[in-house]
Amino acid sequence: MIMRGVQRTVAVFDCFTPQHMSLTLQEISGHIGLAKSTTFRIVQSLEEAGYLIRLDDQKYCLSFRFTRLAGMVMSTLSIRQIARPLMQELARLTSETVTLNMATGRDRTCIDVIDTPAPLMSMARPGQHVRLEHRGATAKTLMAYLPAIQQERLLAQPASTAGRPPAELLAELAKIRKDGYCVSHGERVLGLSAIAAPIHETNETINYCITITAPTVRLKPRIDGFVKAMLKTTHDISRRLGAESAGNAVSETLTPSPPAKPPRKASS
Fold this sequence. Notes:
Elements: H1 2-14, H2 25-32, H3 36-48, E1 52-54, E2 60-62, H4 65-76, H5 79-94, E3 97-104, E4 107-114, E5 129-131, H6 137-144, H7 148-155, H8 158-161, H9 166-179, E6 182-185, E7 192-199, E8 208-215, H10 216-219, H11 223-240
Antiparallel strand pairs: 1-2, 3-4, 3-8, 4-5, 6-7, 7-8
Helix pairs in contact: 2-3, 5-11, 6-9
């Protein structure tokens, strides 16, 4: 009963967006799918607690208590702290290496790594810098969400384009934005595959992505399940960062892989 009450309270908060900063009781009721009488009791309790304000036109809006709480969240939580527990769960489900990455100028930087005991695991390490180029799922996913002028500058570099026309590369980045993820096979390291998906933030910018890296022979047979698990993870991280459009939510998850044999490390 308590859990249901919490879920309903959160649902009320989620009704408010930059496009709908004030709502009538009827509109809130429609958004959360509850009877108007039930919605009124929830809204009244939140108003009494100081989280909602009733305006002169009888609409409701969020109070300044959220500004204070948001300030405390921004000062105490980092992307790594938010993402790590969900990355650990993704690594447990896939039994493969999971990394958190960000775009920094002309490079991409690995922020965090969750290793697994799988043989032939990836050798990515926190703090590792790699030049942003049009190879590999991580780099292409981060590039796909950069401003157009920055994309054009990066794709103007001969090493980035590898002889491919810029228009073709821009079309590939557009497809990644449409799909919400990227898969690559052997583009940076022969025999190594990767799946990457973006993390959305409160201001709808995208500076980070999560990547699963694994030997192609292990990843290809399970690619559909890995993509679903990845999208669920990035959706959950985005939600915790307060993103309004948190990407594709996927409810289906993987059955955890059986324990792997002792690791035999391979460079990537």
